[in-house]
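Folding follows sequence. Below is one example:
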Amino acid sequence: TWKWVVGPMFLYLCERLVRFWRSQQKVVITKVVIHPFKTIELQMMKKGFKMEVGQYIFVKCPAVSRLEWHPFTLTSAPEEDYFSIHVRIVGDWTEGLFNACGCDKQEFQEAWKLPKIAVDGPFGTASEDVFRYETVMLVGAGIGVTPFASVLKSVWYKYCHDATNLTLKKIYFYWLCRDTHAFEWFADLLQSLEAQMQERNNADFLSYNIYLTGWDETQATHFVVHHEEEKDVITGLKQKTLYGRPNWENEFKTIAERHPGSRIGVFLCGPEGLADTLNKQSISNSEADPRGVHFIFNKENF
């Protein structure tokens, strides 16, 4: 038995040593941004750090806990000179990080007072394959939008530097939220990308649909009153916020008709129930003919 065990154990120990060495490398917090509804953005720098879109890292803050490591999706783009994460304050550890960064204080926080951070990663996810397709569907549920923030930022940078060799030609973006709390920090990115596409006469590159799933009668009335305005009153985007949940069967059929004979990447970051629905739709709307349309499903659950 030991002959079969010693090899994997040796590889496991090597992997743990590499991760320990990597986590000991110095990380500098360059900026802390407080977003609405207790969401903070940590912008960091680390020597030799290289990332791809949609990847994630493990973060430890010894000032909060010496042993706890927590995974966070990177929200920055590879083209930026820093890497960032967005942290929603929803528990004891995130509350401790919020306080350690001085976000509970009104006065300006000096850089040397910011806590030490250990980072392990980055680690790959399915979202890395986005740029291998000409057409993609990006589906984010709630905070599951974070890997697509990295993707859309990267697209924005590529278009700023003339994206003539970009394989990706069309993005269908879906964001499902129970309330409006998550819109504030992400809507700015969509507004910038929307303006960039219009300047380059490529407004059709990004089709986005934002669904508010946890709406009440007051919000519905508000929606009716302001529906005729040029921009949406919640996000500030030209595309109006939709209420309820998408009809996935209709969405898949419509996209299949628009892109016959294409391989369409479907990327999800969301709950398992939604993953089952999208997987079934990807299978049922793919044609048996190799020359027909095919939906390739990729998921990242939380």
